[in-house]
Amino acid sequence: xxxxxxxxxxxxxxxxxxxxxxxxxxxxxRLEARVHDSEKLHSGEIRLCIEAGLPISYxxxxxxxxxxxxxxxxxxxxxxxxxxxxxxxYLLYAEHAIEIVADRGLKARVADAEWQRIIGAMREPLRxxxxxxxxxxxxxxxxxxxxxxFPAGADATxxxxxxxxxxxx
Length: 169
Description:
The chain is globular, with a radius of gyration of 16 Å. It has a 4-stranded mixed sheet with strand order 3-2-1-4, sandwiched between helices. The protein has helices spanning 3-12, 16-22, 25-38, 56-60, 65-75, 104-107, 112-127, 131-149; strands at residues 45-51, 86-92, 97-102, 167-168. Helix content is 51%, strand content 13%. β2 and β3 (97-102) form a beta hairpin. α3 packs parallel to α8 and α7 (112-127) runs antiparallel to α8.
């Protein structure tokens, strides 16, 4: 059987229910609260996207996990923040793959090696099935970057531009 067909079968064998089994409602609510609390410290926006498997069109065209993360960055409007400092944390359950996509305002201030360090720190918890822990580590690390480069304003006006609810699909 071809590697393309094997990948398609693997991705089609997972669905949203599988994601919700490993990240139940309580864990998703805790992650949502963590993002909410984080965003009080900076003017950035953090968005979590957890997807069971890639769409068939991505698999057929052999598109990468990064391609999908970039598409979800746009679909979830993470790019649409006042200071161009939105960040998407993308987790693909079928491959336990992680991508972080930062908008140009933050990306210009953070070296690629730093993003790779954050992704590296998430790998071990994800391999161990500790998805909430891995995503929490990413939120904390991105919070530190946003707090450094885009601290919350002294005037206490820091509108929430994007929902904090993790997108699960």
